[in-house]
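Researcher: Quick one. two chains, 595 residues in total.
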Amino acid sequence: MTSRELMHRSEVAVSVELETPNMTLNIGPQHPSTHGVLRLIATVDGERITSLEPVIGYMHRGYEKLAEVRTYAQITTLVNRIDWVSGFANEVPFILGVERLMKVEAPERAQWIRLILSELFRISSHLVFMSSYPLELGATTPLMYVLREREYILELIEGLTGGRFHPNFNRVGGIKPNYGGGSQSKKQSMDLPAGFFKSTIEAMDRMNKICDDIDILVTGNELFKARTVDIGVIPAEKALEFGLSGPNLRASGIAYDLRKIENYLPYDQLDFNVISRPGGDCFDRYMVRLEEIRESVKIVRQAIDIIPSGPLQAKVPRILKVPRGQVYSRAENPKGEFGYYIVSEGGKMPYRLKIRSTSFSNLSILSWVLKDQLIPDLVAIMGSLDFVLGDVDR
Amino acid sequence: MSDQPDTDQAAESPTSEPTPLEVFAADVTERLGCLSYDVEFDTVRVFVDKDKWVDTINEARTELPFFSWLSAIDWSKDYEVGEGVADPDSLEERFEVICRLSSVTNGDGVNFVTVLPRENPTIGSLTESIGGAEWHEREAHEMFGIMFEGHNNLIPLYLPDDFIGNPLLKSFPLIAREVKPWPGEVDVEGLPETDDEEDES
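Model:
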């Protein structure tokens, strides 16, 4: 090769685009934005993700196996901890399923209390998203503002159930009995604490206020929009294929809300809207949750007006023996469709309990949605799916 | 038909007018060419031939587009923990693979069920048409040992790579129970009557 040719070649080499060979990038399992312990093995070409393999199971506690050695009353304690941000909402479909198998129905007042608590947990769960999501995108201010407001909801929950996160408040045929409160109240179930309605209405006013604040702080923020609008678009047919539900599915234009189509708890007596948006991007998923807080506030206010007085517990035997049968019971968890497939063989414990946890399906789309996205968008997209690793790993 | 569990004969014998759910279940069964159906506690089960599994599910998705979950049940006579079946003598040992699809515009939903033998359970994978089935099938594979043909990433999902056994099999012991046996009634919530009076006396 002559020197002239060499010079020519080196010029060519400089002018062509540099190849960035595939590099494997490991993210997690311990990572601040993973909401738990999640490992991602990404193959990247420069800044672009060519393939991504989520590794889950670091928090697998084997609830489905454990449920086979627990009595029905004990399982409510377990299921509280599946999605710890919305503990009560996990109990509801399980207890409704057992009630369907046993052909008992909780008294009306107990059903309304269940409904109010479900909605309080929905607000609480969405507020966790509202505080953590902007943080993941670099906005630190909303975190403390929103978590402070969430305390008002948690205080309501604590005043009513005694627990902040894991109320374990449901019983088959009613709600938690208030034993040990002196001879007068032995046979009575725990009713709403004094001043509950008043403090709830106050808290609901605060929630509307914080929604407006979030709107000002986050929604209109140009940087926030640049990071979320048209990022991580999930079309409706893909969302259905991966079993996405809740706000993630509604942000893809499908108004699928079990509170409207599944006949459970007295939601049919209330006036509220199912929020859906057509875009399917991170911004829409955020907006759906923000609007849903306002809808939940509407629901709680109406429920407080409607809630009848009456007993809190239907008659059930002390040792629960559930008749033989199979039932799939589902409810709208803050994150989407949460269901239990209960197989009873007539004993005190279920023969098999399949837990259809919401985040498991919601997260399963991760490899698909992150393919060909940029590394800086990874956290934005992942965070917008609003998953809890306890709910993924069960 | 011999594979069917004994519960559906009872449910299928028409004693009164069919409920709307039964009409729906019968309609789905006939249109998709499935074996039989069964409705109990508002839960529709449609039994599918295992060779037609993938085709049936794909066809059903045109009207029930929401892929909810896929899992299995181990119907087995011997069990290590918990409680066994009600009458083990008449039990036909088998796996039931269940895939639930539902509608997003109304409350319709069907649990499609197919029956697999307990030895070498193998079934076609849904992953080609339903991306979401990948994790569910991996879970069913590690928990029950069911093989999904055509699944190209059938590695453990939750369990460590070197884990031996299929934990959700009825014959799989629960180590916590082996180490510390079930205390029985001690754990059950005490009767209100026994709470204070007895302590004070």
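Chain A has one domain: 18-393.
Researcher: Thanks, that's what I needed.
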